[in-house]
Specification:
Layout: H1 11-43, H2 45-82, H3 85-120, H4 126-140, H5 142-157, H6 162-184, H7 194-218, H8 234-265, H9 270-286, H10 288-307, H11 310-337, H12 339-346, H13 350-363, H14 367-382, H15 389-399, H16 401-408, H17 415-442
Helix pairs in contact: 1-2, 1-6, 1-9, 1-10, 2-3, 2-4, 2-5, 2-8, 2-9, 2-10, 3-4, 3-5, 3-8, 4-7, 5-7, 6-7, 8-15, 9-13, 10-11, 10-14, 11-14, 12-13, 13-17, 14-17, 15-17, 16-17
Amino acid sequence: MKTESLTSGSIPLHIRRIALPSSIGLFFQTMYNVVDSFYAGQISTIALAAMAISFPVFLLIIATSGGLSRGASALIANAIGAGDETKQRRFITQTLSLGFFASIGMTVVGLLASDPLFRSLGAEGEYLELAHAYMTPVFIGSIVFVLSSLSNAILIASGDSRTYSKVLITGFFLNLILDPWFLYGGFGLPAMGISGIAWATVVIQTCGCIYMVNTIVTRGFLDLKCRRHLLPDIRIWLEILQQGIPASFNIMSVAFGFFAVTYFLKPYGESTVAAFGVTTRIEQIALLPTFGLYAAIMALVGQNNGAGDFDRVRETMRVTNRVGLVLIVVSSVLMFALAVPLMRIFTSDQEVIRIGKRYIQIMACIQWSYVMTSTHLAFLQAIKRPFYGFFESPLRKVLLPLPFLFMLVPEHSVDVVWYTIAGTNVFMTVITVIYGQVMLRRLN
């Protein structure tokens, strides 16, 4: 197997080599979503709102693939650091096997559960139809989302973030062609409306999945001749799930939080829901450096923890926290100053722009909290202690803000929702950093 050892050499150099390609790739992935939102906005504000309420449902797929990916990446990276090739191969094959069966179950559950979820968020009539038209193709194609993500987890654990970055960049440019084609029709295709945006994503993800799986086969991570290794091994599955379920639950809590906030935004109208959906895309752009650093921590801390070199683990955390804070201050300033132009990328609706501007300028002031939370959660995942995620995200996204929202909405302006989100994020960041630093000091 072609793996890169991260247990020696310059840590800042390793971080740059992993985080930079990852951040660039995720930038294009975010811009991919920008393109989708742009074309949804061209249909109507209702279509944009339908895509917004589809986001937390789509997070069900992200939570499954992302949780398994994080858990598998931590286990594989630790095995690489320990020099145990047998474990590496077992974790790799069983991760893909587990992902295959999980994606089938997720498709069935998603197709059955999406309607009541959309209705609970106030979708009905055309609003509901558009939400279904977007999400149904996505759930049908969920297997390629999952297998692409798991293939990337294997490569990240070995220190390679460039391959998936190339896939994301290519996917962005393909989306510029396929979105309008599938949306408006032409060259033998009928106009598919908002469902065309979703089908374009499925086609692009399928191409990316084929490339990613071929890469891990070519590099020797997966031997297709030994198909019996892909048969379910419950013991290995449980080990992967032990690491992956807390991470999935953490991501899932983001979806629950989005559902909760969207529910409380309903009394303020569809323009407010649409503005919230748009601003989450803008926040993703501002937080791109954080996602890159997460990948670097998973690989570096995972391998060095497996090798027992805890001084390098501590140095990795010092460097990533410092770099992350510097980068987020710059992006937060730009986010605050360019709030209106950023909103105009997605919509020309002046009411949506006005509401979104206010949200962006409030949240720009607390973006640092997302960075510090992310780096410490990545550290805990990489040292195979992910269970804090069971408590952190549900508290931050759901349990803490709900009492305030119940008391204050809709009697007060929508600003109370934004301030509640900001306050609970800062509070939980303080708790997370304290806990993470305690665990870091205990390494020996």
